[in-house]
Design goal:
2 domains, about 325 residues, eight-stranded mixed sheet, binds S-adenosylmethionine, Rossmann fold, alpha/beta
Length: about 325
Amino acid sequence: MKSHRDQDDSWNKYWEHGFLTSCRNAFVGNYEGAIKARWVSFFGALASGDRVLDICTGNGAIAMIANEVSRDKGLDLEIHGIDSAAIRPHDTVTRNRDLLEGISFHPCTAAEDTGFEGACFQAVAGQYALEYTDLEGCAAELARISAPAARLQFIVHHDKSVVMETSREEIRNAALLFKETGFFDRAAAIIAIVGSASTPEARRSLGSDPEAERAREHLNRAAEAVSRAAEASPHPQLLQMALQNVAEAYRRCGSQGMDAGMTLLAECRQRISANVERLEDLMAAGRGEPDVAHMVAVFADHGFRADPPALIHHERGPLMGWMLTARRR
Ligand SMILES: C[S@@+](CC[C@H](N)C(=O)[O-])C[C@H]1O[C@@H](n2cnc3c(N)ncnc32)[C@H](O)[C@@H]1O
């Protein structure tokens, strides 16, 4: 089982790339359509000067929607975002940066122990958030920091959602790279052979060297399998990235030497491994009907009046998750 530190580390790496949402391939920038609409109406119902907390904020996607609504409606909301990962949205996010202005981010801050004073938030938000936390601990902490009549809204991963399908496909693609084709090992083998041929004569003689020939053949076969899978996959980004990086590592080996090629290869492997860890974390967060009923019951136990869970679909149809709303008594 993965430790919290491993999970945080895979999210740290993800957010460092500056992605705005946790659904890297589904939204170009921030959440849009049906999901955004839910958040716009949630924040739009708040009163002027209200304090808002976005838990498991990542790079602040939902906090930014809160900021946009606050500006559009002149609400002057005070917005905070917390995450257990070492987030740095003000440094890493490049899109719509003006919407980050005024938001206070609190990295390395768990939703179960936020450090905020009691009863200080009029609204708590969380997109793909609650299901990552220790539910009891988080509900108790939110009860402590929520003001009377505070509103809560969470969008929660559904175990049959399109997000889960995409993640499953990407994990399958990573297995093809690492296990089935051994693509990176094949690439490392040929880079080692080419890289250790230090003179033009040695490099020329590789053309007739049986070991080099075999290694090339293995890599070509692996690359063909990866290309075929990329063509057939609805989410080929990971495979395409691997193909591009291996080609570039080979080029660098020729122009800058073996170490440069091997370094790029190692970085690419590492990036994909971290991505797989993150996606496994995400898959484990999928919730079915009994799970969300339990969430509602836990919040009720902690002094919230929760509405029955509702389903959220993408405006083009696919299931995106559950929506839970509650109010502090
Ligand atoms: C799926 S991402 C969602 C991020 C963001 N809300 C979004 O929709 O783009 C889940 C986030 O929860 C964070 N996280 C996991 N467990 C947490 C906890 N106990 N307290 C605070 N953040 C946590 C992870 O670091 C990760 O950034």
